[in-house]
Design goal:
The chain folds into 3 domains: 5-193, Rossmann fold (3-Layer(aba) Sandwich), CATH 3.40.50.620; 221-277, SH3 type barrels; 282-365, Elongation Factor Tu (Ef-tu), domain 3 (Beta Barrel). 24% of the residues lie in helices and 30% in strands. The chain has helices at residues 14-25, 55-68, 78-94, 101-120, 162-165, 177-186, 190-193, 209-216; strands spanning 5-9, 29-36, 72-76, 125-127, 132-137, 140-145, 168-169, 227-230, 236-240, 263-268, 273-277, 283-294, 303-309, 317-322, 330-339, 346-351, 354-365. A hairpin with a 7-residue loop joins strand 14 and strand 15. The chain starts with a strand and ends with a strand.
Length: 366
């Protein structure tokens, strides 16, 4: 007897391929699906091992499905992806913020598209190759870190609501990456086992977001154009190429020689001005969070000690969440100053390995 019918999101890469193998071995009936999110221009097709959107990646996913005896479909979501994810990405930089496209894509595009197609294909569950875990506890679905600390992807999944998590399976959450590679080798999929990692934004395979913005926003180099680098007293230190091309905490590529390292500490889009300072000028002890999605608990107490990550590779920091039901944002007090708390990025709060919830970083201050 089948344990259930699962719609398996397949990128053609190592992780989703092994996840499919695992589910088949566990007795699930699989339907594979690959989502086409972006149309690459000629000359910018990524290496197929990045496992996203390219024809090679789609073919790899289809061949694996055929070899394991389950059907495979391609779902074209390019229009939705560009309308929501790419547009937001551009808009956030034009507001002087630093966006989190993977979080938005998971929450609003991929899971929504998968669940809709799962219903059409009579699948009870969806599954992905993310390194995370989910369980039911006290009537709620609780998202937690993957066992492999270096690969844990719970940070980019904080936006998933309870009804999404309830139908989601993460086969890889209890394993380390080397174990996954070995599983692929043992199954005879040596090409898959050797695929390299990709950390770039899927629609910017060369990792040059500034070049991407220039292509997507004609005239961006002229409007806003050059602006002033200033210190915190307002003294002009030099010229920059336009505020959308810089992020909080940036040190490289400033082309300002002051005899000591300087960092972007503030961005003012309305005046096309960027404030530079020493590292201590990038430190914050407080910030606020909008769009909070509760996961482990249905509601928060007025104060809660927690551990917060402010970017994907951030090791995390002790903090206290201050919640007021009459306010639309949460306030976060860091127990020690933290560098480059960046508006637009995600703040994800943990209770041990469990995700309490997450939201978008707003104003940060010392």
């Amino acid at each position: 007897m089948s344990k259930g019918r699962v719609l398996m999101a397949m990128s053609g890469g190592l992780d989703s391929s092994v996840a499919a193998m695992m589910l088949i071995n566990e007795g699930y009936e699989l339907v594979g699906i690959t989502m086409k999110t972006w149309e690459y221009a000629q000359g910018e097709i990524p290496d197929k091992e990045t496992g996203c959107c390219s024809l090679d990646s789609i073919n790899d996913a289809r061949q694996l499905a055929v070899s394991m005896g389950f059907p495979h479909y391609v779902l074209d979501i390019r229009d939705e992806f560009e309308k929501y994810i790419v547009t937001d990405f551009i808009d956030e930089y034009l507001k002087g913020r630093t966006p989190n496209p993977c979080v938005l894509c998971n929450t609003h595009i991929k899971w929504g598209a998968l669940l809709k197609r799962a219903e059409q294909l009579d699948c009870q569950f969806i599954a992905t190759g993310h390194y995370a875990q989910v369980r039911r506890e006290n009537g709620r679905m609780v998202l937690s870190r993957g066992v492999d600390k270096d690969k844990d992807q719970s940070y980019v999944l904080w936006g998933l609501p309870q009804e999404f998590l309830e139908k989601t399976i993460f086969p890889l959450g209890g394993y380390a990456k080397p174990e996954i590679r070995e599983m692929a080798r043992e199954a005879g999929f040596h090409d898959i086992a050797g695929k390299r990692e990709s950390y770039e934004i899927c629609f910017i395979p060369d990792n040059d977001y500034r070049g991407f913005l220039k292509k997507q926003v004609p005239g961006l180099e002229e409007n806003p154009g050059e602006g002033d680098f200033v210190d915190k007293e307002g003294n002009v230190l030099g010229k920059h190429k336009g505020y959308p091309f810089y992020t909080i905490g940036q040190r490289k590529g400033l082309n300002v020689a002051l005899g000591e390292p300087v960092y972007v500490s503030k961005i003012f889009p309305e005046t096309n001005t960027i404030v530079l300072g020493k590292r201590q000028d990038t430190l914050s002890t407080k910030f606020s969070v909008s769009g909070f999605n509760p996961i482990k608990y249905a509601s928060l107490p007025s104060q809660l000690d927690t551990f917060v990550k402010i970017r994907y590779k951030d090791p995390g920091h002790p903090a206290t969440i201050i919640s007021d039901p009459e306010e639309s944002v949460l306030h976060v007090k860091l127990h020690e100053p933290v560098s480059a708390v960046t508006p637009g990025q995600s703040a994800v709060f943990y209770d041990g390995k469990d995700v309490i919830g997450g939201g978008f970083i707003e104003n940060a201050r010392f």
